[in-house]
Amino acid sequence: MNDATLLQQAQSVLDGNAPQRSRMASWLARSALEEAVHSRLEQRGRPAGTASMRSLLSCFEVAYLDDPSLVESAQNAWVGLSNACHHHAFQLTPTTAETQQLIDTVRRVSNRA
Amino acid sequence: MDLLQWVAQRIDQDATLTEEAGLLVLASLQGDQDLEALLTGSHIAPTPVAEPHDAAAVAPEPAGAFLKSLAVQGFRGIGQQVTVELTPQPGLTIIAGRNGSGKSSLAEALEVALTGTTYRWKNKAAQWKEHWRNLHHEGAANIVVQVAEEGIGVTRIGCTWDADTNDVTKTTSWVQRPGAKRVAGVSSLGWSGALDTYRPMMSYDELGGMLEAGPSTLYDALSKALGLEQIADGIARLEKRHKALKSPGDALATRRRTLQAEASVVDDERAQQASDLLKKAQPDSGALRALATGVILVDNGPLAQLRALELLTGPPADEVTNAAHNLSRAVGDMAKAGEAELARNAARLDVRRHALRVQEQFGDMICPVCAGAHLDQTWAETTREDIARRSRELEALEAARAALERARTGARRVVSPRPASLDRDPLPTLAQAVTQARQAWDLWAAAPEGDLDLSAHLELYWGELDTALQSLRAAVAQELQHRQDAWTPIATKVAAFSADWDAWSSTTATVGDVAAATKWLKTNDTRLKNERLLPISDAARKAWAMLRQESNVDLGSLTLEGAATRRRVSIEATVDGRDAGALAVMSQGELHALALALFLPRASMPESPFRFVVLDDPVQAMDPAKVEGLVQLLAELAATRQVIVLSHDDRLPAAARRARVGARILEVTRGAGSTVSVSDSLDPAKRYLDDAFALVLDVGLPEETLRRTLPGMLRFAVESAARDVVFDRRLTRGDALADVEELWSTHPATRERVSLAIYGEVRNLDDWLVRGYRKFALGVITGGMHSGLKNTADGKDACRAVENVITDLRAGAKQ
To answer: Which residues of chain A have a CB within 8 Å of the CB of B549?
Structure first.
């Protein structure tokens, strides 16, 4: 599944009324971000392999040295979505608007492909 | 923009304000001396009026200060000396530590050293203030702060308490600028106002307090930062001037009323007239002066009559006596000559004249009248002589009659009719004297017909008249003197008043200008303030947008409203688009975020001499999402400011680490006996290096990708370390930040940057590269950037080589 499809799914889940829709949508958006980063790295001759997202974001930072805001968006989205997806003792479920914001950020990373 | 220029523009745009009043407004903002100078005309201040095109131009920032280090000993939670080395340059530094690790002690120490107190102490009980001393530390307590000032270099600021004092206020503070003697106190820094105004150090408590302290506190905090106090000061100055200029007028008005009241009760028509003149708010000072000096005489009262009576005399005594004597003598003389005798003599003379003519015509003959004697020559001669003698006698008689006539006329003249001034009583008090005089005069004037009666009349009544007139004159003179006594003081005052009034009147134009200037500044006060507030308001909204993240509270505009005790900051807030009005709708965390949103723009204003902002634990009660937003906000601010955040909450360093904002993280830990240590946990170079090691260790990362990425990551690490070294060294020695940034951006090549870090200038690096790992590392990060890490090179080796190079750069190793 490519990042565009994943984003679409994330959006429809968020627009629905499932009880855990924010967390579910975050999962999907996070996958979309991974796909987007993979494909963007591929475009710059850097296959992702099975590397960790931390490594890939490092690679992304170097590969897209010419577009700092893209790098920043990818990093912010990753941080936000990771927080949303993992259960932290001190954190509450992300709200719809927060998740929406993160989805929009992923869309920016994805759209430039 | 400078407030003065900015106000000048607005004055220019306002056609209703006269040029003089406009100048007064500007002078009032500049200070007392300028205003005084303008008013006294000793010089006309050429006020710098900005070009209209210049309106958007940003004024260059004043020389600023970065924090270089903080050393603390024996203060609060810190026992043995601990030193925090900070990088004196823009960037985000997070000082992380558990509660009780001593980090707040560090923040307080900094605040105490710079300001002499801390927010925490201001409203605390004495007990709190007394136990500031560290229990594990004997001897003196010390705080030394080093700041790198642009254009100056490193300035040391110290603060010491003797071993035996528990009074926190008994401190010896000093400032030492490079190459200068140590100066007692911290005032030589010139920061006392700015520390209050821009508040570069803020704790969680203080942030919360800002919004809770009441609307006027917030108002004052903002208006200080915006330099709006200058406007308030200007208004105060103008009002003071206006009062001073107007007060003679007010005093004169009071004087006028008092004088008018005083004059109105004086029984004197001059006083009455003065009273009438003084009734007017704009009295005719010319008329008053003429009145006081007697230039014009008043003739509508008893005064004129009194003056006439004062001078009223009867005929002089000798004149009267003479007239009486003359008359009686003339009457006597006349009696002597006798009318009847004269007639008989004249008739006889006629007969004899005829007899003579007969004798002359007809010659000698017997007298035809008496028929006795001869009318002969002898007779004729005798008769001629007799006639001549008789004629002379007749003449004498006629002379006597003429003399009598004259004496009579003279006597009549002496008896002059009663003068008009005696017709009526000028004053009731004088009625008796006037009546007596009038009666005496009437008696005097009622002269009898007969000459001798007349003469006797003169003798009889003059004395009475004279006595009556004398007593009248005395009474009138007394009255006049009485009046003069009453009028003179009034006249003196009226004269003085007129002079003062004229002097003051000549200044009324200025008073008008000052009044207009005051009015303008007052009416435009709120508008000026809010226009001035706009950038802060915008920055606060932007900050809020980043901090709010999930909040449904929208921040609208900030406005300063009211004045004096009713001054407040109105914060427009909407919840889900609906007007929420007040801050009451906000949660504690939101309030803190809002306070940060308000005060970060203030602390980072271009006019502030501080290039640092220290926040002590701003993250408490903040949602995780807001922590992310805060890190972004701080990172943005860190582009131009040295942002130091102390936090016990590891969400902040974690977020900073994750968000890759290039933060430096220091960790504060506490051992036994208040031994506090501070260690570098993360800095941007280390972060890049960590990432590079992580890449090498990631077995899932394709070799191709690793080789293409690693040189870039390592280059970031080296350049970041080089940048730190260059900025640190240059800002420490007093270079201006803008110059250092210029230097950095004009040398984009990695070799140049490394050279700047090692040698402070761009030069050949061959000598330095004799060490193999340096050459290898530099080869990787310069050559491998585009072509990728060579197949012959090992990734981990490259990372280690770069790690060593970074150590060398930090140590300044030239060999």
So the answer is: 98, 101
